[in-house]
Write a structure and sequence with these properties.
There is one protein chain. By secondary structure, this protein is mostly helical. The protein has a single domain, classed as Hypothetical protein af1432. It is about 65% helix and about 0% strand. Helix 2 crosses helix 13, helix 3 packs antiparallel against helix 4 and helix 6 runs antiparallel to helix 7. The protein starts with a helix and ends in a 5-residue tail after the last helix. It binds fe (ii) ion. Fe (ii) ion (FE2) binds next to loops.
């Protein structure tokens, strides 16, 4: 199977699995189902010291403490959902979790949630390009994944990225993402985000 074929099949797999996870017309129920999926699948390790679930919760907590709106808190919580939908065991290979996750979520969430997620890897590439200290301070795992995520941006890519209407939100998600890797940090439990996620869902989907 070519890279293109495998990307298409991963997209289909992720879209179908999210549709299977989030069923019925009730947004509270869909939010509950999504959080249950995260609880079940989020115990794999993200960055050597935290699980995927720890990482999501720490990112969301940082968003909440910054007084972000519900859409951005939800975006922080779900920014790596693509890893879970892909059932990844390692980050060594780049499977475009940001695109896969954002695409799957467009059925259920508005662009204010999905687009910062789609752009959070580009936000790392952007920050690495404009700020060498940013790259130097990334975790080892994040520096490693940078090598397979397109690396530095060209001047044209920087220009286009800065013009994107979700640029600032994507940078914000990235900053929280980078900080959300603290071993044994106590944070609010996942269920505290159910209302926030539910209120961020599209009303008809
Ligand atoms: Fe992340």
């Amino acid at each position: 199977m070519s890279t293109c074929d495998s990307s298409a099949s991963n997209t289909t797999l992720a879209n179908n699995s999210l549709i299977e996870i989030m069923t019925g017309p009730d947004n509270q129920r869909k939010a509950e189902q999504l959080l249950s999926f995260m609880l079940e699948k989020g115990l794999s390790f993200y960055d050597e010291v935290v699980t995927q679930l720890d990482h999501a919760l720490q990112a969301a907590e940082l968003a909440k403490k910054s007084n972000a709106n519900n859409y951005l808190i939800t975006s922080a919580l779900l920014h790596d959902l693509g890893h879970l939908l892909l059932n990844e065991k390692s980050l060594a290979e780049d499977l475009n979790h940001e695109e896969i996750g954002a695409n799957a979520m467009t059925t259920f969430f508005p662009s204010t949630v999905t687009e910062p997620i789609r752009l959070h890897v580009d936000a790392k590439r952007y920050l690495c390009t404009v700020d060498q200290d940013y790259y130097n301070n990334l975790s080892q795992a994040s520096q490693n994944s940078f090598q397979v995520q397109g690396q530095y941006m060209s001047a044209r890519e920087i220009e286009l990225f800065e013009q994107n209407s979700h640029f600032e939100a994507a940078i914000q998600i990235r900053r929280w993402d980078d900080l959300a890797k603290i071993k044994d940090l106590t944070v609010s439990p996942l269920k505290t985000y159910q209302v926030c996620v539910s209120q961020s869902l599209l009303s008809i989907s």
